[in-house]
Design a protein that fits this description.
This protein has a domain of 52 residues. It has 6 helices and no strands.
Length: 108
């Protein structure tokens, strides 16, 4: 139980040293999302992002990549999920937003 409390409080060993790596991964995923929403509709990656899965299975709806990206965008930038694609389409706005994340880790 103590380990769970440490993980939720952010005081578990290894959390602070891995945070820059996690933010770098987040920066790359958000940058890729910006590329995706600016792609023309006929390109395959954009088509996959907008594809429908057909009939919904029983139980909780599946967690999509767009949902996964929208959570940190809300936490770090305050952009709601409904406006995320519109903001990412504006290259002049999206690039400076990504630079607001903490600096990249040293790659030595």
């Amino acid at each position: 139980m103590q380990v769970v409390k440490q993980l939720h409080s952010g005081k578990a060993p290894g959390i602070d040293e891995n945070r820059p790596k996690m933010l770098e991964g987040l920066r790359r995923q958000l940058r890729w999302f910006g590329y995706l929403v600016r792609m023309p509709f006929g390109h395959l990656p954009m088509g996959v992002l907008q594809a429908h899965r057909g009939e919904r299975p029983w139980g909780r709806p599946r967690f999509s990549w767009r949902d996964y990206i929208s959570t940190p965008a809300w936490e770090h930038f305050g952009i709601p999920k409904s406006k995320l694609a519109d903001v990412a389409r504006e290259r002049e706005v999206w690039g400076p937003l990504l630079k607001l994340l903490p600096p990249q880790p040293d790659h030595r």
